[in-house]
Amino acid sequence: MVLGKANEMKSHLAMKCKGYVPKNVQLNFLRKIDNECESSKTSSISIKSNRADKALTRWFVCSGIPFVAADSLYFKDFTKSLNSGYNLSKRTAFATTHLDGELANITLKIEKKLAKAKNLTL
Ligand SMILES: [Zn+2]
């Protein structure tokens, strides 16, 4: 059990409270998190930023780079040199919003594949 903000509770129920939350409730919260990540970006610049945020989140996670690297002035300078219109998110956004969104996205994709799979054995 966790005390905190509504978004933290959503991600807790969707991803961390496995076994205690019914599957349909968990999937419902995963969809909400995934939709919030997608719908918060509407303009083409925001869509590109969203894509960059997702790519950076994957890079941080898959390379084992701590999110605190996002606060580095040199890293900010690097991202500005690639695209001056991109505003690098803070490390807290990578560690919460972007990571939760990516985890929800991947979990839903796995759930879809498993729902269509046949003859599974454990
Ligand atoms: Zn819990």
TrEMBL record:
Name by which UniProt lists this protein: Uncharacterized protein
